Amino acid sequence: MKIAVVGLWHLGTVTAAGLAAAGHDVVAIDDAAIVEEIAHLRLPVDEPGLAELIAAERAAGRLTFAAHPSAASGAELVWICYDTPVDDDDRPDVASVIERASAFLAAFDGAAVVAVSSQLPVGSIAELERRAGSARFCFASIPENLRLGSAIAYFRAPDRFVVGVRDARARATIERAIGSFAPSIVWVSVESAEVTKHAINAFLATSVAFANELASVCERVGADAREVERGLKSDVRIGPKAYLRAGEAFAGGTLARDLSFLATLGDREQLALEQIRATAASNERHRRWTAERVAEATRGIAAPRAAILGLVYKPGTNTLRASTAVALARALRDGGAAVSAYDPAIAAGDARLGSIATVVASAAEALDGADVAVIATAWPAFREIDVALFERMRHPVVVDPARFLEDRLADAHAVRYVGFGRSPHAVTR
Hints:
The protein is built from 16 helices and 14 strands. The protein has an eight-stranded mixed sheet, with helices on both faces. The chain has a six-stranded parallel sheet with strand order 11-10-9-12-13-14. It folds into three domains: 187 residues, Rossmann fold; 90 residues, N-(1-d-carboxylethyl)-l-norvaline Dehydrogenase, domain 2 (Orthogonal Bundle); 131 residues, NAD(P)-binding Rossmann-like Domain (Rossmann fold, 3-Layer(aba) Sandwich). 41% of the residues lie in helices and 14% in strands. β1, α1 and β2 form a beta-alpha-beta unit. It is globular. The chain is an alpha/beta fold.
């Protein structure tokens, strides 16, 4: 089956490689400059196993790259994967995605099922249908189904796909495309699939905000958020896999984007949607927790120095987009602190940080002379850092929102350890 994957940011490259690995004839299409980069394995996001899979599928002849819609000729399925940009206020640029997708379809020569996985608000597929104005196309919605850092494994062995279709033709085509590796396909209408993506991310965002608010209570009353989480998950109505884990605020991008979509929809339909707005507001308040703890730790210190361990959005990637660590570095810099940062996936001196922070080559270099350290990304390698490096800081205070290094640092004699949702007087057991 020939499939054209259009839009080669993270979602598109994973989708193209995964479909090729399933045995399909896949052509991946985007602007010439982007195609050139990806064809040479200079990927926009460092995703474990992705470069190797692309190389293998190209060598097998199942995956090709092109910069013009004519390369998609003969494709039965066109899979739209353009990235939906989000600005610093979590406002998505939907119009640019609609325009690019419409332009591609206008230049496409043939008839095809068009599946849309770009993160767009409900009603976007109806808009694409209106613009296309042709019976050549049958549209479907396949909400983005990635797991950053494990995207290839999850695409090839998902727990399920949610797919919204208009008719039997779309259903049959998509089933042929993903049925061999998707153990469960939840078939719904197009609009239901679009809302399902909003609902999933809004629910996850609400779970994060709820857990963080509970943890704030725990800090004040001497309870431990981790113990409360265990108690919550022991209830069969909630369950051990519930998305309840106090830590950092969720970053902009996926979760914030769908909250924004739903809030905008509420405005349009004159619906209050108090829960959606409260989740966003709660998360925004919680963003300040780490910076406030750092400010407390460095109060009275002239020209304080802060070390940030971890910069990327999530371990296993190299993306700084939507990174809470970068936002923290900016806030600390604006507050007068000098910031050194180390991340295993970011090269020393990386220009993307500009004047926000000095990116150094090791954890030891970042911690040397620091007044406070923040564990911002849960890289497994950070568990191997010698505790003595923390103890030798100028003022050994470690702020660890996710309590990633609690078992190593909470009892370190010379370190003042600050973990979110944990009483300042807690005793590690």
